[in-house]
Amino acid sequence: MMHSPTALIRRRDQQTMLVAAVIVLQSVAAAFFVADALGDLTADGLTRHIAIEALIAFALLAGVFLGAWHMRELLADARRRERALAIASGALADHVAMRFADWGLTAAEADVALFALKGCDAAEIARLRGAAQGTVRAQLSQVYAKAGVSSQAGLVSLFFEDLLDITANAPKASDTD
Predict the structure, then answer these.
(1) pLDDT class for 177, splitting at 50, 70, 90?
(2) 14 and 75 Cβ atoms separated by less than 8 Å
(3) What is the CATH number of the domain that holds 130?
(4) How many CA atoms lie within 13 A of 123 on its CB side?
(5) Domain range for residue 135?
(6) Transmembrane segments in this chain: where (predicted)?
(7) Considering the domain boundaries, does residue 116 fall inside one?
(8) 14, 93, 94, 115: which could form a disulfide with 125 (CB 3.0–4.6 Å)?
(9) Is the dihedral of CA 131, 133, 135, 137 positive or negative?
(10) What are phi and psi of 105, to 5 degrees?
(11) Helices 48-103 and 152-169: crossing angle, nearest 10°?
């Protein structure tokens, strides 16, 4: 099921708030146990039981801080990925528009071609555009001819080839070190 970017961001923000609430609760619990261990230490002196209790309380506190730090890093990484995806989505839209312009598609042909790239058949495109199926078929034929392909699959494959060429020629992480 596809979700809108706004819904995904809202869901991420809700999850962030839930994690923040759990971290606050864990922090309060850890602070209580540390304070209890320190209180027992001052009242009863150092015993094996109090030393173990203090060690566990400080380990819990350290776990809370490390977990919070790690969560912050994960959230920052998620935001970076969302920005990269938004840039890639915009870049794909720009690339499609550039290819359509290179082929000299009319506005109607570009509209039909975009529906074809999304996987719509001629009947669906006609219904969505409020046009006759014959008109859409003629426009698709023009699009295919201008793109140098003979089918919808061929049209889609041109864009996959472009993406694969970009991916194959992109620098690898080891190349940038």
Answers:
(1) very low
(2) no
(3) 1.10.10.10
(4) 0
(5) 104-177
(6) 46-71
(7) yes
(8) 115
(9) positive
(10) -70, 140
(11) 130
Distances (CA, A) of 106 to 5, 121, 153, 162, 170: 30, 19, 21, 22, 32
Q: Is residue 13 one of the residues assigned to a domain?
A: yes
Of 50, 84, 118, the domain-final residue: 84
Has this prediction a pTM greater than 0.70?
Answer: no
Do both 77 and 126 map to the same domain? no
Q: Are 54 and 35 in contact (CB under 8 A)?
A: no
Pick the last residue of a domain from 51, 84, 117: 84
Which pair of tokens denotes residue 51? 């030393």
The verdict on 109 and 70 lying in the same domain is no
In-domain check, residue 63: yes
Taking each helix axis from N to C terminus, what angle separates 107-117 and 133-147, rounded to the nearest 10 degrees? 90
Given a cut of 60, is residue 123 above it in pLDDT?
yes
Distance CA 88, CA 94 (A): 10
- 104 by DSSP, 3-state: which? coil
Burial class (CB in 10 A: 0-12, 13-18, 19+), 91: exposed
What confidence tens digit (pLDDT) does each residue in 151-162 have?
999 999 988 887
